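Late entry, S-adenosylmethionine complex.
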Amino acid sequence: MAATKAGTLYVVATPIGNLGDLTARARDVLAAVDAICAEDTRHTRQMLNALGLERPLLALHDHNEAEIAWKLVERLKAGECLALVSDAGTPLVSDPGYRLVREVRAAGLAVSPIPGACAAIAALSVAGIPSDRFCFEGFLPAKGSGRRERLAELAKETRTLVFYESSHRIEEALADFVAAFGGEREAVLARELTKLFETVLGDTLSGIAAKVAADENQRKGEFVIVVRGCEDDTAARLIEGQRLYAKLAEHLKPSVAAKLAADISGAPRKALYGGGEG
Ligand code: SAM
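Prediction complete; structure with ligand written out below:
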């Protein structure tokens, strides 16, 4: 069977570190397409060189995707077949490609996945934290205030949570996790998966934060943070009640804010505000 069909866009997963993780089918498709759309053409060229492949490369990134998508659609309509790759892992997962895929599908053309590595799934597969239901949160906001707000919204989520983080922010992000979810929450920090310094660190959030703070090497590389969901309904209500109370108390009397927050969240009013009036 031929590796590719005319007029098809192949969304091809590439390794997240170890080149051996490129699938045989991904290699066949990359070798057969008319051109490869790549987030960073230099990076992808290196991968192709290592595989002994040479194909035309087109840059497709967040800044030009909307502008060039229609041109790629025209090429597909003319019968070419194209591949889309990102720097690592599965395109569209915290990576460009969404607009292109959408336009190609809207034009009635085929988009076919060539599945493979994805850091979030790789981390989840070794975390030992319930994985039957999980939500992928990708990168948290870069600014501290935005990050803390997002984490406060997620604190009562009962599904396992999966985040991406870079070395620049790992220490402050972990401190924010402890503040928002409590230091006792179970988590796994998966670092440099499939690479030389692969580390999978399982502990409470405060235990992980302490280990990362104490060892500079644990702050290097790329990270996935897997956090156990909020297990206890009572704790979830309390977290939500505290979040609402903090917001409402900016505008209302504390006792009124506490009553409203308690009514909405189901948390006991006294646990939100101990200032009298029962
Ligand atoms: N599309 C990719 C995927 O399928 O996983 C993710 C791309 S996103 C721009 C890059 C982030 O993924 C990194 O900052 C890190 O959080 C995570 N990541 C990528 N490779 C990783 C690895 N080998 N180990 C741990 N995390 C990794």
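The pocket of S-adenosylmethionine is lined by residues 16-17, 86, 88-90, 93-95, 118-120, 164-166, 190-195, 222-224 (CB under 6 Å). Will revisit in the morning.
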